[in-house]
Amino acid sequence: MVTNGGSALIKALELEGVEVMFGLPGGAILPVYDPIIDSPIRHILVRHEQGAGHMAEGFAHATGRPGVAMVTSGPAATNIVTPLCDAYMDSVPMVVITGQVPTPAIGTDAFQECDTVGITRSVTKHNELVTRAEDIPLVIRQAFHIATTGRPGPVLVDIPKDIVDPANPRSALDWYWPTDAEVASSLPGYKPTTKGHAKKIRDAAELILSARRPIIYAGGGILKARAAEALRELAELTDISVVTTLMARGAFPDDHPLCLGMPGMHGNYTAVTAMQEADLLIALGSRFDDRVTGKVDAFAPEAKVIHVDIDPAELGKVRRPDVPIVGDCRLVIEELVTALRDLSGGDIAAAQPDRSTWRSTISGWQERYPLVYEQSAGDDLLKPQFVLEQLWERAPEDCIVASGVGQHQMWTSQYWRFNHPYTWVNSGGLGTMGFSVPAAIGAKVGRPDRMVWAVDGDGCFQMTAQELVTAATERIPVKVAILNNAYLGMVRQWQEMFYDERYSEVYLSPDLPDYVKWSEAMGCVALRVESPEEVGPAIDKANEIDDRPVVLEFRTDSNEKVFPMVPAGRSNSDIVVDPSQPQPGGAQ
Amino acid sequence: MNLPPPPGPAPKHHVLSVLVENRAGVLARVASLFARRGYNIFSLAVAPTQDERFSRLTVVVDVESAPLEQVVKQLNKLINVIKISELDPRDSVERELVLLTVRANAEQRQQVLSLVELFEGHVLDVSVDELTVTAEEHPSRLDDFEELLRPFGIVDIQRTGRVALPKLEPGGVGSNRH
Fold it and tell me: What is the maximal distance between C-alpha atoms in chain A?
């Protein structure tokens, strides 16, 4: 069957199972937008290409399926670089299609030309400039294969206009659809290892069975590998406590007695300290990020390390593991459970040393250093933590929450109780302000059955709020909670603590813009909430609205800081807790 | 000819043999991984292999072993990279070619020619006061060649960068081939 590159591209997306894509058309990609009219794929027209990228990410976070975005060349391609980098850092499966100037014009500084594959090379798992129409079906299949297997990540496909424009003879091709085997053989350098090495798994099991102070250090790889159930089985069988990193919130239920919550710079005291004092860290799909380790040389000094990751480059990148295992987290955990059963003769609990002292040490920390804040009825301003607790209490159990980056992100991670996987959508590695509104929209598109809240700061909201127009137009009823403290709050916190309260360029004003009017102008229902007693009713009202986006603006206290905190570059042993609590160790 | 055996390379010198898909952009992907970490590529040679779908890059880098391990792992993540091996100079054969234009008037010409002969090189071009010569040798011997010609005045020099392959097993066949 003879077809053209544009129709072939859309057909290839359909065959890859794409039901929805996010994008914005323009000159170079025009011929691909024409066949969309006749395609069952739902296209969501964004207001800025960055929004398309973050929506695709939000969709992928919530569904586990690859998000798809399509934009034109030049400035559209550069606008989507941030989401690509974000997805690359957080291993989010995403396929981005960019238009490109016609092949003969490439390299001539043509209108809206840029070197898209050059610019995005270091922020994609792979990218490809397609130069022949007949390559399109194969390249699209390769893109989805690469984005979704091994360590997931973004793949960009750059498509010159002439090979998709039916008016150009260069766009003609005989339709074909490559088989899985053909896709695999077309990528001779790509063979991710999924099955762990049996001997190493046995070594890991032996370490676990002899450890006295073990901790499971669960990362985002658990979610990518759909390994939450396997993780739970491992933790319960061995009775080992679990910390869930920022990227792994929800991978293990917060309400589980073995869950210690988030470790790291703003992790809770118990999670941070339990890792620090452990004699064995079982790192599963986590990458020893600097925000988790603090000063690397002083991190978990007595711990042996089992490190499981599908990406061999993560093993030994930061901390040299005693037992490195390359493989898919779910498969490896399942094998590990089998090995533990074999080695212990079936009774894992009996085969392990007595860990009652370790358990009581941990519960002692939990009692002594809970997360704390105080909301008084007479306060002029809301405590952000109070708002988050109210949001969580009034949301359905399986509600999805997205956040931007900064203080509100840390408070959301701390105060939301994540009991289900795939309910937390955030920008961990890159720390992209403005992530939450578009990401929440993408998540809601992927999971229309779920309630989706975006928790945002006033600084973040101003970066990508225009996508609420997209949400209103497309009837995507997301809910946004702006914690408006009139500051770039996290920067303010650092300036207060580390720059002698010299506040440089962090004040934003509580009233400019008027968030209620702005949101209403974008087609949302909007409310301003200023006193503690208004918080609950306003949230209930927002939760009842399901036919359009809602924005709640909470006026919050800019003096509130995120605690605990490990100052940058310091050892996790120097953790600083809330000033109302006795400071542990030597920290002042 | 009784030249001394080639000395071992400097400790920070590493030779990587990288088998890649023979297609546009692959060299840039490899090079940018080094550039991103601020590692200088000392020399680089690229050409297609016996199978035209693949090219082999021989990269010489000045990096400590630990960061090199990370670079190699990152290189392995590139979709178009098939295989990477670090070549230990003791277990590999290495060659490099140089083109060199050197000042040589009538009096000096004979001295230059004897050096070229000593290194089994050839004269490619000649003028009244200059010679362009070539030699193909182990890189460290080309260093010596260059050094010995320097007093005459080197006008221009182009070296190809090192190429290398693993040494054959004396008794075996088909070792470590792709």
Answer: 76
Residue A309 neighbours by CB distance under 10 Å:
27
Mean pLDDT of A347-367: 95
Q: Which CATH architecture has domain B93-164?
A: 2-Layer Sandwich (3.30)
Residues of B with CB under 8 A from a CB of A: 20-21, 24-25, 28-29, 32, 36, 53, 69-70, 73-74, 76-83
Give domain limits for chain B: 13-87, 93-164
A14-23, A522-531, B149-158, B167-176: least confidently modelled range: B167-176
Kindly report each contact of residues A320-324 with a partner whose C-beta sits within 8 Å and lies 24 or more positions away, as own/partner: A321/A283, A322/A207, A323/A200, A323/A203, A323/A204, A323/A207, A324/A200
* Active-site choice (A55, A89, A142, A161): A161
Q: Which residues of B touch A316 (CB under 8 A)?
A: 69-70
Q: Which of A247, A265, A490, A522 is catalytic?
A: A490
Flag if B32 and A125 touch (Cβ within 8 Å). Answer: no
Please report the pLDDT score of residue A508 as a whole number.
97
Q: Which domains does chain A have, with CATH numbers?
A: 2-185 (3.40.50.970), 198-368 (3.40.50.1220), 384-563 (3.40.50.970)
Q: Do B32 and A188 touch (CB under 8 A)?
A: no
ipTM rounded to 2 decimals:
0.90
CA atoms within 13 A on the CB side of B79: 27
List the single best residue of B79, B81, B83, B84 to mutate versus A (max A Cβ within 10 A): B79
pLDDT tens digits along A385-441: 999 999 999 999 999 999 999 999 999 999 999 999 999 999 999 999 999 999 999
pLDDT > 90: percent of chain A = 98
A534: helix, strand or coil: helix
A40 CB within 8 Å of a chain B CB: no
pLDDT at A192 > cutoff 50 = yes
pLDDT at A382: 96
Question: Any idea what DSSP says for residue A430?
Answer: S
pLDDT confidence of residue B1: 45
CA B26 from centre of chain: 20
CA distance B43 to chain A (A): 22
Residue A125 at interface with chain B, using a CB cutoff of 8 Å = yes
CATH number for domain B13-87, candidates 3.30.70.260, 2.40.340.10, 3.40.50.300, 3.40.50.150: 3.30.70.260
Same-fold call for B13-87 versus B93-164? yes
User: d(Cα A498, Cα A504) in Å, to the nearest integer?
Assistant: 12
Min Cα distance A133 → chain B (Å) is 17
User: Among A483, A500, A502, A504, which residue's Cα sits nearest to residue A560?
Assistant: A483
- Whether chain B has a CB inside 8 Å of the CB on A146: the answer is yes
Residue range A550-588, pLDDT digits in tens = 999 999 999 999 999 999 999 999 999 999 999 987 544
